[in-house]
Amino acid sequence: MAGLRCCVVVVIAVMVAATAATPTDFYGHGGDHHKGYKPPPKPYSFSYGIDDKHYGPSFMQQEKSDGHSVKGSYTVQLPDGRLQTVTYTADHDNGFFADVKYSGKAQYPSKGHPPFIVKPHHHGDIGYH
Question: Secretion signal: which residues (predicted)?
Answer without folding.
Answer: 1-21
